[in-house]
Design goal:
The complex is a heterodimer.
Chain A (H helix, E strand, L loop, with lengths): L1 H21 L6 H26 L7 H17 L4 H25 L4 H20 L4 E2 L3 H8 L1 E2 L2 E2 H19 L1 H18 L4 H27 L1 E2 L7 H11 L11 H20 L4 H23 L1
Antiparallel strand pairs in A: 1-4, 2-3
Helix pairs in contact in A: 1-11, 2-7, 2-8, 2-9, 2-10, 2-11, 3-4, 3-5, 3-9, 4-5, 4-9, 6-9, 7-8, 8-9, 10-11
Chain B lengths: L4 E12 L2 E12 L3 E5 L6 H8 L7 E6 L2 E3 L4 H6 L2 E4 L11 H5 L16 H14 L15 H14 L4 E5 L7 H16 L3 E5 L3 H7 L2 E6 L2 E7 L5 H9 L17 E10 L3 E9 L3 E5 L6 H8 L7 E6 L2 E3 L4 H6 L2 E4 L3 H5 L6 H6 L7 E2 L2 E2 L1 H15 L15 H15 L3 E5 L7 H16 L3 E5 L3 H7 L2 E6 L2 E7 L5 H8 L6 H12 L1
Parallel strand pairs in B: 3-8, 3-9, 6-7, 7-8, 13-20, 13-21, 16-19, 19-20
Antiparallel strand pairs in B: 1-2, 1-4, 4-5, 9-10, 11-12, 11-14, 14-15, 17-18, 21-22
The chains are: A mainly alpha, B alpha/beta.
């Protein structure tokens, strides 16, 4: 019974305990901060993805949207825009790309898988075209503060991550948008018959996913001190895995951003642990993939 | 009450690709009356309701609501104008709370800039409604944790909370037990007193005689008549619905009972059913009575290998067999016509042909290639036998009426020539004429030597059609009766657990074991 409800949390603690024992450098303040800071990028993206998956949808385009908004963000900085404007413009573009996904999915009645798979290629391609494959690098100090600065000893990306988590949690719990997100995943037809504009809310959900992908882009670009069109390749794996490991059902209707938060940290910890244990990069992919499928299997067992 | 008309629908016509659903239908509703709509499956009742609810746009005709002409504006507009519909297939969100389901789309919002939902107000309002109508459900409970009867009540509470002038109930009692039906009727009386008008759709004509003021009868998309309920007899209603005399409501012929076909011993599954033992003979119809939740459906699903059993022995035709998955059961000659036919019995997006042949493709293919010609002949014969109404067997199953869909599920197993047919609620949501056809088909099967298990919540059906009746309560068989020698009250007293003398049954089982 306890495992059913807190399975992910138990796994989370277990991984931390095991890594602390076999790897002394794991449980240090510096390393833990490092893990959370690294996790904040796929973490914020996973928070947006949670909305999409709660409606029983999927967004495969997040990694490419990160690349495209990242290079745009870099050129905004080079154009000399103030930091606040850079962030607003980048997030806005992310939300627009997400809305395009949502529009095609709802009005064109194409499945989310196909639409976002296409967008994955389109956005990546546009990012390459825009930069001609060259990184846009070298930013001013105020922009680099977002990814590299500290605020009262806490890295800024962590603050952004936690703040986004709180906003997402309130939206999901206490607003119509949030409740309809659950409702659409539970029984879309019933929501429609209740006289709710389902399309509008589904578009909003994909816009949120696009927006959080752009937020990830802002953090990553600032942190790397460069906008690159090859950034975020394969990120959709980490992002979707965070959501699924966090207990959100791919069938929609069930899950929470709190679970996603833990899921994202768990992915970060596993990455970090494998690095500390000097597991070769190729093997890391195998281990991570297996862990994701294993988590899904565990979830199935819990349901039975 | 008063003679004031709140709704007038005039000359409504609607055509779907290949089907004329409604043809020039008139319907009106007075304030504070219950006006029933009856008709066979496919007569156009649901279409008419969906036009009123703003789901479909009528091809022709006019809707006047409270003296105003209403144009097509979608579901939201009709809800706002005071029309709420409780659909036959419940439309609830499983993982949201009762209160959220009731207020879906109209959540009270706090008066501030970020527009958060006002939970306290929502729960208070729901509690108010629950008290007003004497309903005992926790507004914070998740809908998925409620039984189907309570889910229905949540739908009704939703309509009540909308303070609608017109409440449409589409087969509201299909899944309710006697007690719950009475409670519903009390709610309906309450609504009438407050001037709410009710459109009541049901196949259960006794109910209509009891609760409705007027009745409109539809047949093949056209209106046959509208009259006061007290001016018309049940027999007249049936005749108008079907267009002819249908004869006995429960045709039962005597079929010679043959050898033992199936023996189930000590079937167990924790929390579902306990020590269930019974047998079935050729030519026999074995009825299983009990309340919703007594474990009847679960028991036959265990037998069919759709659920995992903890223990139990199953013998078919004298051979002990292991059933671990549905395929094992099908190979042993068992066919299941499930309760939820849309979810478990059919592939809605496929054609009649594909659905009917699903169970026999393995027998009519060579190296993986399907013999379509041979299958076509078979499908034609079985469609004739079951009288499925359709244009062509390439038609998609989704658009057919409930009764016809049920016949397709039957046809699927007929093709397979099973020895044992398990019918789970075979006539739920099916009209009088359709029911009689299904009883006839069952008896045809029995006459040809098959054995039939029939689960049904409709006691008259169990009592009149079965040769033998098992009563289940709380996962156990509590009593066995011979068909025709027992009355409704007697069966019911066992089904609700009021009387328990399981000794009779255990003794009999023990005797057989010796």
């Amino acid at each position: 019974m306890i495992f059913r409800k807190y399975g992910i949390f138990i796994a989370f603690i277990a991984v931390i305990v095991i890594l602390s024992i076999i790897c002394p450098s794991f449980l240090t303040w510096k390393n833990l901060l490092n893990i959370v800071r690294k996790s904040s990028i796929h973490g914020v993206m996973a928070l947006g993805m949670t909305f999409v998956i709660l409606t029983a949808g999927i967004d495969l385009s997040v990694g490419s949207v990160l690349a495209l908004t990242g290079v745009l963000c870099a050129s905004f900085e080079h154009a000399g825009l103030p930091v606040v404007l850079i962030v607003i413009a980048t997030l806005g573009i992310g939300a627009i790309i997400g809305s395009v996904n949502g529009l095609i999915i709802t009005k064109g009645k194409v499945t989310p898988f196909v639409v976002t798979l296409g967008m994955m290629s389109v956005a990546r391609g546009l990012a390459h075209i825009y930069t001609d494959g060259q990184p846009i690098s070298g930013f001013g100090g105020s922009f680099r503060y977002i990814g590299g600065g500290d605020f009262f000893y806490v890295p800024v990306p962590i603050i952004i991550f936690v703040f986004t988590l709180l906003i997402a949690a309130v939206i999901l719990r206490d607003t119509r948008l949030g409740r309809y997100t659950y409702a659409i995943g539970g029984n879309e037809e019933a929501v429609r018959l209740s006289g709710i504009n389902v399309d509008r809310y589904k578009i909003a959900v994909y816009a949120i996913s696009g927006l959080t992908a752009a937020l990830g882009a802002v953090i990553l670009t600032s942190r790397l001190n460069a906008g690159e069109s090859i950034a975020g390749v394969g990120y959709e794996l980490d992002v979707i895995a965070s959501v699924v490991i966090g207990g959100t059902s791919l069938m929609g209707g069930r899950g929470s951003v709190w679970g996603t938060f833990i899921g994202a940290l768990l992915i970060g910890i596993i990455d970090n642990g494998m690095n500390l244990l000097i597991i070769p990069a190729y093997w890391q992919l195998v281990v991570k993939g297996s862990i994701i499928v294993g988590a899904a299997l565990l979830d199935r067992l819990r349901e039975e | 009450m008063t003679g004031e008309y709140i709704l007038k629908m005039v000359g409504i016509s609607k055509e779907f690709p290949g089907v004329k659903a409604l043809e020039n239908v008139d319907y009106d509703l007075k304030r504070g009356e219950v006006h029933a709509i009856v008709g066979e499956n496919g007569a156009g009742k649901t279409t008419l309701i969906k036009i009123l609810a703003g789901v479909y746009r009528a091809d022709k005709g006019q809707i006047r609501l409270k003296g105003e002409n209403v144009s097509f504006q979608g579901t939201r507009a009709m809800i706002d104008r005071g029309v709420s519909v409780i659909y036959q297939e419940l439309n609830l969100i499983p993982y949201l709370s009762v209160a959220e389901n009731i207020f879906l789309g109209r959540e009270p919002i706090k008066n501030n800039c970020i527009r958060l939902i006002n939970w306290n107000k929502m729960y208070a309002k729901v509690s108010g409604i629950m008290q007003l109508f004497d309903i005992d459900i926790n507004p914070k409970a998740r809908v998925s944790t409620l039984g189907i009867a309570y889910q229905q009540v949540v739908e009704i509470a939703k309509a009540l909370s909308l303070q609608s002038d017109i409440v449409v109930m589409d087969e509201p009692t299909a899944t309710l037990t006697g007690n719950e039906v009475e409670k519903l009727f009390k709610i309906i009386h309450n609504l009438k007193r407050q001037g709410v008008s009710i459109i009541y759709i049901s196949h259960k004509l006794e109910e209509i005689k009891q609760i409705a003021d007027r009745v409109t009868i539809l047949r093949d998309g056209e209106k046959v008549l509208t009259d006061d309920v007290k001016n018309i007899t049940t027999e007249e209603i049936v005749r108008s619905m079907v267009g002819r005399d249908i004869g006995k409501k429960y045709p039962k012929e005597n079929v010679p009972i043959g050898d033992e076909l199936l023996k189930v011993e000590q079937l167990c599954s924790k929390g579902v059913c306990e020590d269930v033992s019974f047998n079935l003979r050729r030519g026999e119809i074995l009825g299983i009575a009990g309340l919703v939740g007594a474990g009847r459906t679960e028991m036959v699903q265990l037998l069919f290998g759709y659920r995992k059993k903890d223990s139990g022995r199953i013998t078919v035709n004298g051979r002990s067999i292991r059933i671990k998955k549905p395929l094992d059961a099908v190979r042993a000659g068992i066919g299941l016509i499930p309760e939820e036919r849309r979810n478990h019995g059919l592939v809605l997006e496929l054609s009649v042909f594909d659905n009917v042949t699903l169970s026999v493709l393995d027998c009519f293919s060579f190296l993986g290639f399907i013999n379509r010609r041979k299958l076509g002949e078979l499908v034609n014969s079985v469609v004739d036998k079951t009288k499925i109404k359709m244009h062509t067997y390439r038609q998609i199953v989704k658009n057919l009426s409930g009764g016809n869909q049920q016949k397709i599920v039957l046809a699927k197993w007929f093709l397979r020539n099973c020895d044992i047919y398990i019918f789970d609620e075979p006539t739920r949501g099916i009209d009088v004429a359709g029911k009689i056809e299904i009883y006839r088909l069952m008896q045809d099967l029995a006459r040809n030597g098959a054995g039939i298990i029939m689960i049904s919540s409709e006691l008259p059906e169990v009592l009149n059609i079965s040769d033998r009746i098992l009563v289940m309560y709380d996962g156990k068989i509590v009593r066995e009766f011979k068909g025709g020698e027992v009355n409704k009250e007697h069966v019911l007293s066992y089904a609700i657990g009021a009387v328990r003398d399981s000794t009779t049954y255990t003794e009999q089982t023990l005797r057989e074991d010796k």
